[in-house]
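Just curious: can you write a single protein's sequence together with how it folds?
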Amino acid sequence: MHRDHSPALRDPPLLKVGLILLTVVFLLVFLGLPMVVVFSQAFAGGYETYIAALNQPDARAALKLTLTVAAIALPLNVVFGIAAGWVLSRFHFRGRSLLVTLIDLPFSISPVVAGLVLVLLFGSQGWFQPILQATGWKVVFAVPGIVLATLFVTLPFVARELIAFMQEQSTDPEQAAYTLGAGGWRTFWHVTLPSIRWSLLYGILLCNARAMGEFGAVSVVSGHIRGQTNTMPLHVEILYNEYDFTAAFAVASLLAMLGLVTLFAKSWIEHAHPLRGQG
């Protein structure tokens, strides 16, 4: 009879139980308890008060702007992520490591710093202000600035998922398609894209959650103009600072629901397609 002598099975039972309990307690205190507080405070005034808070014009405008920014950022991230994954997994060239490092740059730079850089570039005293003034475009304290800030902080999510997966993926199916006479676009749509679809969806989920929940970079470039440049996280801050706690937690509960939906979708993908893309 085969016996598994893996290190995990030789760990003392007391150690395993202790580590499991520590993990569970940590998650309950730092994740579960805040979620309970958010939803309990959101419905503290009753269902009617909750709905009324979400129906405020500023709240609707914040929700609309958040969805609009995410709808713009997601397709751009998908296009960039697929292109980056293809280039970095299929070709070897000088500067490849530098390109990978640049893709990871938003992970290592504070979003506030990213927002300040955008202000220095596109603000009233920015480098590109003469061009913007001549063309009538406004970036900072307007929707384009929010989109740029969101694009910066969400840039790595789709790209990193596809790069990691496509580097491990065999190119034999694509080579076979080329051999049979399929062109580049046909090979991509019928061979490459189906094989990376779950990894792509995984990256899109993470990207969407970050796009809707981003605060730091967006806060710097938005100007906090109520009803115009306030996304949902910024609207929550304003309501909380005005001591309108019920409305603040009501809007925050929408972001919390987004996080829960993203978490469950992410868990389903990992469970149903553990290799993310093969299936």
